[in-house]
UniProtKB/TrEMBL annotation:
Entry annotated with the keyword rRNA-binding: no
Pfam families per UniProt: fn3
Keyword Acetylation: no
Residues covered by the Fibronectin type-III domain: 28-123
Descriptive protein name: Fibronectin type-III domain-containing protein
Organismal lineage: Eukaryota, Metazoa, Spiralia, Lophotrochozoa, Mollusca
Entry's transmembrane regions: 138-161
UniProtKB keywords: Membrane, Transmembrane, Transmembrane helix
Organism expressing this protein natively: Pomacea canaliculata (Golden apple snail)
Gene3D superfamilies in the record: Immunoglobulins (2.60.40.10)
Amino acid sequence: MKYSFILQTDVPGSETVEKTVSIPPYPAPVNVEVRELRNSSVHITWQPNKDQPSGEDFKGYNLTIQHVDTAVTSVVTSVVIQQSSYMFDAIPGFLYNLTLHVVVKDAPPGETDHHLFSGYQPTASNVVGTITLSKTNFVAILVPIGIVVVGLMVLVMVFVVRHRRLQRSFLAFANSHYNTRSETTRFGNELDDGDEPLIQGFSDDEPLVLA
């Protein structure tokens, strides 16, 4: 910014002296970083310049984000903030232009810092990470199902073994009461001759017949 000074004595007709002084604007913030996050958000951070004014003269930082297109450039947001960071929700694949400068009371805008950035786009590594996460969830679902299936198989095997043992015990008991001469099997001696249950000529694959 330029200032012109004109000096003249109070004597009528005295010559004037004109002086022009150029005052540079306040420097732009330093170490500006734009970090693209996975949720399509952009985290913008910076640090104040050592020559930045302080106190009541400092009004903040003017941050402007523009959507850059081949045909037109439109302002997405423009804010004046006190802190040295800002969160912005970017559209994936879109290109943006960031401008940042200090705002000082009764002073022209400071030097502007420019940055280009784009919205987050998934990369091959992100896709692999997503697939891995899906496989992990799939395994987490299959493991309980597998445990239930194995448990059911064990119960079925126990039932089959107990059934076979019971069948063998019954056959052993029946054979111990089998009379080879009369080919009959008697259970107990308290019944009359006409009421005694008889099992005649049975085998493993034939049902018992009570006579």
